[in-house]
Amino acid sequence: MISKFLMPLLLAGTVITQATAQTSEAQMKPSPSRLLNIDSSVVTKHAVTIRGQRIPYTASAGSIPIWDEDGKPLAGVFYTYYERDDIKDKSSRPLVVSFNGGPGTPSVWMEIGYTGPRMLNIDDEGYPVQPFGMRDNPHSILDVADIVFVDPVNTGFSRPVSKDIPGSKFYGVNADIKYLAEWINTFVTRNGRWASPKFLIGESYGTTRVSGLALELQEAQWMYLNGVVLVSPTELGIERDGPLNAALKLPYFAATAWYHKKLPADLQQKDLKDVLPEVEEFTINELVPALSRGGSLDETKRKSIGARIARYSGLKDIVVQENNLDVSVNLFWKELLRDQGYTVGRLDSRYRGIDRQTGGTSPDYNAELTAWIQAFTPAMHIYLREELNYKTDLKYNIFGQVHPWDRKNDNTGENLRQAIAQNPFLHLLVQSGYYDGACDYFNAKYSMWQMDPGGKLNNRLKWEGYRSGHMMYLRKDDLAAANENLRKFILESIPAKGQPAKY
């Protein structure tokens, strides 16, 4: 017998399994209480053309519980899972588990902006356009890997089962890693993917998450990965206080100044990738030692170093000197285009903002973030409800309340190093945007260097830079390039049949 809710969907060309249709019936009725069905899914059929090839796939949108030690449910974790239909042998089919960051944001950003089969309508540089909506993503990695996008607790539709569940179960570096590792185990088991090559990808705080998960999955779930991808990585618990913290941001300053044509003529006429190596060498070889001397730095040397900082950052020399050679990122975002009446964006410094007043030491708002929220929010609501048929009155949290977040004992960079060292099959790819001021590209390089101080893992670590910001994939050219690099990384990280995991 076909449910009355299933029939219209079948007539519309959408196929839903009988079991799923029964689960979905409650979801399709109004739910004034806005409660999540913690163990449910809606299944639909689709196709997309990727690199000229038609790819049929099944999309599953739903929730899987996480439980406490006594088997009582703590929360429902929402996910969307894309599985290519014309693959018979899943044992050799890669599975990518994808997270975004915040902490406090769902996987919306990479799902409909980067790797998923459908993407939001934006212009070629990533700015919002109307009408809001969706289109096919011709660069998606679904041709080579199945993908599950996961929303941690209190992001997207994910929720605790009760307000009485303490936030400490979810909201912290290590709590987050622990329960999500359990969830991944359940997902892999339910979907029969234990034999598949497995990859984690995280963006922003999601890089902290997947770096910790790489080791947690090995040690607590006995699940071994083939690859980890860090998109715009955080500091991963790797210390860089004092002079290092002050110095490492200069190459990002230089990239942003180059983009806005604020560098001296001899530098401005060069390509960005010809400018940055010079700035990086100065940063490591001269700026860090100079800042380490603090107040003991010779006055002549101080003026010389300050002049170089001004030259590479596009700032006035007096601004650099008045800030003791350490200009904060907030002041940089406010100061660089102050004479034109604009601020520059934090997560993507190509974006410009307008403040209430020209004076001050930091922007009123993040110009890029307001643009992204404007583009992504309506697109995701349209997509989930109208294309994936996930009907609910539950609020979709683009930013969920997950604070206070326990940041103690963040050893995720070291966790990732251990996981790579212990697992000869495990590879790392780092992707950064040159104009990202929150998780800047040179700090990402520094983290990768420190994760492998002995240089013994170099052949399995790779860094890539793009001419955009935090979400580099929003720029059309970088969407194509970054996905192609992901595709190559996935395929190259799978060992030949019968190859042993040994040194």
UniProtKB/TrEMBL annotation:
UniProt keyword Glycoprotein, yes or no: yes
GO molecular function ontology, one term from the record: carboxypeptidase activity
Keyword vocabulary terms for this entry: Carboxypeptidase, Glycoprotein, Hydrolase, Protease, Signal
Signal peptide location: 1-21
Highest taxon of source: Bacteria
Keyword Disulfide bond among UniProt keywords: no
Protein name as it appears in the record: Carboxypeptidase
Origin species: Chitinophaga rhizophila
